Amino acid sequence: MPGRRHRIGLALAGGGPFGAIYEIGALMALQESLEGLDLNDLDCYVGVSAGSFLAAALANGIPAAEIYRLFIEGGESSGALTPELFMRPAFAEYGRRARTVPAIATRAAWNYLRRPLSRGPLEAFGALGRAIPTGVFDNEAIHAYLERVFSRPGQTNDFRRLRRRLYLVATDLDTGEAVSFGRPGHDRVPISKAVQASAALPGLFPPVQIDGHHYVDGALRKTLHASEALDDGMRLVLCVNPIVPFDAKLAAARGRGPQSNLVDGGLPMVLSQTFRAVIHSRMAAGLAKYRAQYPASDVVLFQPEPDDGEIFFTNIFSYATRQRVCEHAYERTRRDLVKREKELAPLLARHGIGFRHEVLADPHRRLAIDFRRRRRAGALARTAGDLHGTLADLQRWLARAA
C-alpha cells in the first residue's frame, strides 16, 4: 500500500512545440496510471521553455484533459492554442530594425571610404548585423493569449495568488544568468509574461523585455531546473524531458529506424542530433548532482527511449503531427511504467503513490479515443441532466394547471 503523501514537485523541460505536445501525452499517461497523483494538486511546479506553458496551466488548476484540448485539438474548439499563434511574423521587430539601416549603412560607408585600405568591405559593413531582426515570430501573441486564459474565473495571472508554487525559468541575455520568475523579487511579473520570456528561443522569438532586462529561453542555462523544486524541500520531483539523442545503430538493430548512419540524412539530421546530445548531456550531469546534493529526495525522470525513431524524425517545431506525437508519448510512457514497475513501485509508494494495474494492463487503451469518449460521455450526461430538468418543469406546470 502507498505510504503517506510527501511534498511532490513537477519539472518540465523544453523542446519547442513538439516538446510541449510530447509532455502532454506523457503527463496524461502518468495521471491515469498512478494512484494518488493529482497533477493539479502538487506542491511545486517548474517549467522551462515549452514546459513553462504546461507548468503554468497545471499550477493554475487547468486539468491535463483541458490542456490536451487547447494544444492538440487546436482548430476544433473555441479558445484553442492554434499553430498560427506561434507563427505570426514579428512585424514590430522588423520595423524597429529596418529603421536603423540608413544610419548604420551611412556610418559603415563613411568609415570604409575614409580608410579603404585599412579594412575590407565586409569588415566595414559588418555593423549591418545590428539591423537583423532578433526573432522571426512575434511572441507577444503568446503573452496575450495566456493572459486571457489565466484571467478566467478561478484562475490567476499573478504568481502571488496561486495556491501552489510555480517557478518559470528564463535566461538574462545580458548576464547569462538564470532567473526564476515566481521567486521573491521576480513574482510581480505576470505569469503570461514569464512564460513568454522562458520560451523566447533565440532566432525564433525576440528577447522579452521585463523591468529593463532582456530575457531569452531558460534552457540556455539548464535543461530541467529541477533544483528549483528540490531547494524548496520537495521529497519527490517528477521530471519529463522530451529531447534525447537518437541511437541509430540500436534502432536499426531493432528494426525501429530507417537508417543506421545519421549523416545520410544531411545537415538537418546532424544538427538535430547535436542539439539533442548537448541538451541531454547537461541534463544527465544535473541529475547526477541532484543525487549527491539532495540525498533525502527522489527524482524520477520520464523521457523517450534512445532508439525511438518516431520521436527523433519528427521536427521539434512541427505542430501538424501533434495528435500522433501526443498519442505516441502516451503509449510510450505507459509502457515505460510497466517496464520500470519493480524499480518505481517501492520508490513512489514511499510518497503515497501507487500503480493502477487495471489501467496499465489494458492493451486497447488509447489517449485520443478515450478522451473523445469521455467528452461524449460528459456531453450525454449534460443532455440527460437538461432533459431531466425540463421534465421536472413540465411536471410542476401540469400540477399547477390541474
Question: Can you tag this structure with a few keywords?
Answer:
402 residues; alpha/beta; two-stranded antiparallel sheet; 11% strand
Can you offer a commentary on this structure?
The protein has helices spanning 16-33, 50-59, 64-71, 91-98, 101-114, 121-124, 140-149, 191-198, 227-230, 248-253, 267-293, 309-312, 322-339, 341-349, 357-360, 367-401, and strands at 8-12, 34-35, 44-48, 165-172, 178-181, 208-210, 213-217, 236-240, 298-302, 354-355. It is α/β, with parallel strands linked by helices. It is globular. The protein has 16 helices and ten strands. Helix 1 packs parallel to helix 2 (50-59). Strands 1, 3, 4, 5, 6, 7, 8 and 9 form an eight-stranded mixed β-sheet that branches. The protein starts with 7 loop residues before the first strand and ends with a helix. Mean pLDDT is 84; it is low at 75-79 and 371-386. The relative contact order is 0.16. A hairpin with a 5-residue loop joins strand 4 and strand 5.
Quickly describe the structure.
This protein is α/β, with parallel strands linked by helices.
